[in-house]
Fold:
Amino acid sequence: MSQQPTSKNTRIEKDSMGPLEVPADAYYGVQTLRAMHNFPISGQPMPETFIRAHALLKKAAALTNQQLGLLDAKIAHAIAEAANEIASGKLADQFPVDIYQTGSGTSTNMNVNEVIASRANELLGGKRGDKAPVHPNDHVNMGQSSNDTIPTTLHVAALVEIKLVLRPALAELENALLRQKDATWGVIKTGRTHLQDATPIRMGQEFLGFAGQIERAGRRLQAAENELSEVALGGTAVGTGINAHPKFAAEVCRQLSGWLGIHVHETTNHFQAQSTLDSLAFASGVMKNIAVSLTKIANDIRWMSCGPRAGLGEIEIPSVQPGSSIMPGKVNPVIAESVLMVCQRVIGNDATVTAAAASGNFELIVAMPVAGAALLESIRLLGRASANLAIQCIAGIKATQRGPELVEAGLMLATALAPVIGYEATASLAKEAAASGKTIREVASAKTKLSATQLSELLDPSTMVDPSDRVLPVSG
Structure:
């Protein structure tokens, strides 16, 4: 740990535990400094999205307390102005408290309280570190506790990230997949189950399946947003609402919703809202589910493009960078690989959130900072990875002739003969074709009484990919 700054460059601040030397140019105060000393763990502060959302909560709280006649207008407006600066990205270096801190997030809550109070006093003509006329606890934290504001901000920040980052990215990815569906609808290739040849399928149908995964991810995301919209604010220390005005939480939620274009409302049951992280765990589970969907898509893209000579080679993916430091001309599916790593991280983050949500005792969960940081990272990573996959990979995919060329050689074309000659006879044809290297058409022509015209109709792959348009023949 670095040495204490010299007294020339410090100011003395006191809290209930005694005095400390705080850097003279810091907006944060003694409680933040204690947290910096106590938690030299990762060097990772709480996410910027969280800090900005927490500042806006403090702004809404001050203005609400003014409306309720509890806070002087001059103080409320100074708090609001200072909070606005933080919400716009200013003073970002004044929030150094590590993620791995007190489980309630009290250190971060006080960090924000101290910075807002210090800056508000400066705006009112005072100095950094002053505790009057604006006090970090008495005024900035009025009607609040870390135990209800921290989980509330976690919900608000997650909703903002979903709205601004994840939803637009999923929409972009779904649209890119639908465009590929249209572009490749006429390409008929071999379907695969168990990684083995199956009946023919349109490549466009595969892309339609991918798009359907993303569309349904959006539905599940709505359920997560519904869960996150219910917040703990108003419960203060243990859910009873001590020291908070009965109308405080509803008005703060109204203001936050209007400013951010999201919907948050006070919970109808404060005792569950701040003694659990059930809603956060649910939302994290949805993020994991999205990661599972993206894993399927990214892996299929890798398989379809593998080769190009010795693999499937059914599609060409955009060449975005050299694929090897030793093999010239090699192109790797690097965008898909980056998506897979994001998905692996998100799945791990969900394990973190799950463990954190299970760590509560009585009236409080004591792992809120790490749970919130993990969820916010998952939302952000999924959004950025989805948009990047759409732009740098999906949009530039081109089908090759490899897929259609392999259809005629496929053994599962025989499936179309089963309704005519029966399952056992068809299986025998498929085995002979596999052993001899001949096509199903060639073996069926020699071993059955079906005419060339009948075989042409039965083994037409275009009739196999749209079975609803096909009339099954009557077996003889």
